[in-house]
Amino acid sequence: MSAISLPTKATTRARVRRKKAWTPGSIIAAAVVVAMVLIGLLAPWLAPHDPLQTNSANTLAGPSAAHWLGTDQVGRDVLSRAMFGATAAFRGTAVAVLTMLAIGIPWGLAAGYVGGVADEISMRVADAFLSIPGLVLAVAITGVVGSGLTMSMIAVGVIFSPSIAMLLRSNIIPIRRSNYLRAARALGVSDLRAAVRHVLPNAFGPVLVQVCGLASLCLIVQAALGFLGLGITPPNPSWGGDLADVYLFFTQAPFATVIPGLLIATAAFSISRIGDAIRAGLDVG
Amino acid sequence: MTRVLIGRLRVVVPTILLITILTFALRVIIPGGPADALLGGSDNPDTIKMINERYGLDQPIWQQYFSWLGGMLRGDLGTSYATGLPVSDVIGPRLASTVEIVGLGMLLAILAGGAIGMYAAIHRSTRLGRLVFAATGIGVSLPVFWFATIVAGILGVALRILPVNGYTPLADGLVPHLSSIAMPVVLIALPSTALMTRHVRSTMVAALESPYVRTAWAMGISSRRVYFDLALKNAIGPVVSFMPFLAATLVGELVIIDVVFVLPGLGSAIVDAVHFRDYPSLQAIVLLMSVAVVLLSLIADLVLTALDPRRRKEATT
Amino acid sequence: MSRASSSAAHRVPDGPVLSVRDLIVDFGAAEPAVNGVSLDLWQGRILGVAGQSGSGKSMTALTSLGLAPPGAHITGSIRFRDQELVGVGQRTLSRVRGSGMTMIFQETNAALNPVIQVRKQLTLAVRANRDCNQDEAHELVVDALRDVRLDDTDRVLNSYPHELSGGMAQRVMIAMALVCGADVIFADEPTTALDVTVQREVMEIIRRVADEHRLAVMLISHDIGVLEEISDELAVMYRGRVVERGSTDDVIRAPEHPYTRALLDSIPRIGHELTEFVEMPSFDMDLTSLPAAERIAEGSHS
């Protein structure tokens, strides 16, 4: 998944075999995401330990019966922190994705529909947004409004919204010229209504693919903020923050650095795999 | 080429102007205003008034914007809240490592991503080709800060093959210099290389499955020419439009790489600015990084345009 | 038609240059895309292949060139001169492509490379297939353009494909096939996207270059009316099989297979009043049970 899929020329492909969208790999990926979200939601009931409970007598320990994934540098239970970390990761991602859609969909519909100067201006604004690195802006926003997940992830959502808008726009322009829209208009359906009723359902698939790619990116940005100490305020658990805490102890306890990183990578990869599967499904249809 | 450049500038200049507005807007959203944040919110109104006057914060917002923009254009980046020195003094010494690492990283991402993407496109139906493509999927979702900590931990701390103690200038010798930037350059380029690979592969596959490539095969054109002369030319356009995103990804990673490898670059400068609530520096750095993205994509665009006759033609008309 | 018989009459061919026998191209679908096709192409002769889209016409041509899409399971025999092409590697196939056999396509806007000048595309085709220097290559290119009646050679050579009209682009395509020096040209619906007058011009050019350069041409079209005017022989394909084959005169005058009759009836003719709307019959039956098909199937096995 590239986070922005640029409109490429349609090619006539001599594709004979149908591509299978839901391979075992992508089913596992979807299951992993669902499981992580559920664990994140149910962490207060599922976690075996208090994620904030330190124990100076048992630091950087390997897996044991009491602590399945061991303990960190101040003796907190890695498994419990990982579970609560999922809450932060997916909440942050959800905030960014919702922001992205809330801005990107109306923007894209407007740009594709109104056309002309408005479209030209919105393209320039999109260029400007896409030139500001998401992580840099998220860091800056955190610096301005103070630590905390919500504002910085809203900022990330704003920054990524043009790629949703531009995708919708490129899907609308051909549809706008199509006969069924002309027919709908001839029947007196208003432009806005036509846009919502005809354009959105048609662009739904590509947008979903895009959202998966961007969600995966948002999750990484969220974790990166935590890693820089700018997202969730320590000692509250977050995958990125936990990684930053333990990575200096890499030589003593390499295992402890693996868990949070692996969780971030797995979550991000699984989300983008779902996007790939949807894309593969769209290719044949 | 000059005319192409002028054509591109018509897009680039408005983009940069919009970036300045977005960057300036950072100041507007500070809760309680900059003075309040600067003083910790506890000082009396007189002090706040004095601060506002000193930094020009009592003027209307659009006037503040234009004087700020005017300053930026003259190279005056403002005064650091943290040190009281000009922001350019804060940022200036931080540019060397950043320019080098971002520039080399971009070059690496384009070359390596381009080559691997070509390979994966040509060998799309073989096992190895598919494996390479699948690996880029992991590369894209691999958090660099995690991978960087592991690589730095193994190569730098455990095995002591490469140093992780910051940036050694070229003046201190070529070998120490190169070994100090080797890991940062490779790691900063990693996600962008994966992205580039995926993008090049998909545009190359589209070109290779096109009717005109089928014609070339039918005319007996050799596979080397089909891949490197014909299909590659057609893939250039989409690759160019991908450059801004590639550059933005790369510059974004700088924050992580600077922190992990303790490099004196813009990435660590922005983290410092956040910790010291140094808003003028923060704004200047965001602006610089965004403009760097625009300029990097402009350079890549110009170079790739020089290779593509149709784009050259379009740009001049 | 008169043109066709007169041009073929003064030539005694010394065996087919391309000989396809029992070709099956299978993608694992319910029915193979090409299902036991046998055809011969002779130098200086045009074989018209008619049939609706998906009947296996283009797939037969692409497979002969070794350009069947990946995943095709190919059996049977394709003999080009003395060389068997089924089962050989891409290296051999790419040696035959261009200098031995080549193909021109419909929709020249897509089939010519949009970002490369005509001059370079033609020169690349020359260089890929002939050992010659720059001047000789240029001469070949100019000759080929004159052959296809593009006399304003400089303008054409300096153009990009999108700057040419459809008819000109198709003629450039034919010139490209000529400069390769191939003996066999597959022409896949070369005039389908063109308007009627241009269509006729292009067909006449194909007939003329086939005569002048003694080319074996397989001309593919869904329109049997286009084929009958310039083909020496006709083959009719349906669902991956050749259901009728013979000299153009015989097939037109006395079509044996109901599908051929249906194709012929669908063409409006001057002098014949189209009295009723001819509906294309459906042939969803086992083809081998039809008497005519059986005969042809047997004939091709012998």
Helix/strand layout:
The complex is a heterotrimer of chains A (285), B (317) and C (302).
Chain A: H1 24-46, H2 78-114, H3 116-131, H4 134-145, H5 149-176, H6 179-186, H7 191-227, H8 239-246, H9 254-284
Chain B: H1 2-28, H2 33-39, H3 45-54, H4 61-74, H5 87-91, H6 95-122, H7 127-141, H8 144-158, H9 174-208, H10 211-218, H11 223-260, H12 266-275, H13 279-306, H14 309-316
Chain C: H1 2-9, E1 18-26, E2 34-41, E3 46-50, H2 57-64, E4 73-80, E5 83-84, H3 90-96, E6 101-104, H4 108-111, H5 118-129, H6 134-147, H7 153-157, H8 166-180, E7 184-188, H9 196-212, E8 216-221, H10 224-230, E9 233-238, E10 241-247, H11 248-253, H12 258-265, H13 291-301
Parallel strand pairs in C: 3-8, 3-9, 6-7, 7-8
Antiparallel strand pairs in C: 1-2, 1-4, 4-5, 9-10
Helix pairs in contact in C: 5-6, 5-8, 6-8, 8-9
Order of helices and strands of chain C: HEEEHEEHEHHHHHEHEHEEHHH
Span between termini of chain B: 12 Å
Number of DSSP E strands of chain B: 0
Helix residue percentage of chain C: 40-55%
Q: In terms of structural class, how would the helical and strand content of chain B be classed?
A: mainly alpha
Shape of chain B: globular
Low-confidence stretches of chain B: none
In DSSP terms (H or I, runs of 4 or more residues), the helix count of chain C works out at 13
> In angstroms, what is the radius of gyration of chain B?
23 Å
Shape of chain C: globular
Helix content of chain B: over 70%
Work out the helix count of chain B. Answer: 14
Strand percent estimate of chain C: 15-25%
What structural category characterises the helix and strand content of chain C? alpha/beta
Strand order of the largest sheet of chain C: 6-7-8-3-9-10
What is the correct CATH architecture of one domain in chain B?
Answer: Orthogonal Bundle
Describe the 3D structure.
The complex is a heterotrimer of chains A (285), B (317) and C (302). Chain A has 285 residues and is an all-alpha fold. In chain A, 70% of the residues lie in helices and 0% in strands. Chain A has helices at 24-46, 78-114, 116-131, 134-145, 149-176, 179-186, 191-227, 239-246, 254-284. In chain A, α1 packs across α9, α4 packs across α5 and α8 (239-246) runs antiparallel to α9. The longest helix of chain A is centred in the middle third of the chain and has 37 residues, at 78-114. Chain A starts with 23 loop residues before the first helix and ends with a helix. Mean pLDDT of chain A is 79; it is low at 1-18. Chain B is mainly alpha-helical and 317 residues long. Chain B has a domain at 97-275: MetI-like fold. Chain B is built from 14 helices and no strands. Chain B has helices spanning 2-28, 33-39, 45-54, 61-74, 87-91, 95-122, 127-141, 144-158, 174-208, 211-218, 223-260, 266-275, 279-306, 309-316. Chain B is globular and about 85 Å long. The model of chain B has no long low-confidence stretch (mean pLDDT 84). In chain C, α5 crosses α6, α5 runs parallel beside α8 (166-180) and α6 (134-147) crosses α8 (166-180). Chain C has a domain at 108-181. Chain C has helices spanning 2-9, 57-64, 90-96, 108-111, 118-129, 134-147, 153-157, 166-180, 196-212, 224-230, 248-253, 258-265, 291-301; strands spanning 18-26, 34-41, 46-50, 73-80, 83-84, 101-104, 184-188, 216-221, 233-238, 241-247. In chain C, 40% of the residues lie in helices and 20% in strands. The model of chain C is unreliable at 1-12 and 288-302 (pLDDT under 50). Chain C: It is a peripheral membrane protein. Chain C: Its main location: membrane.
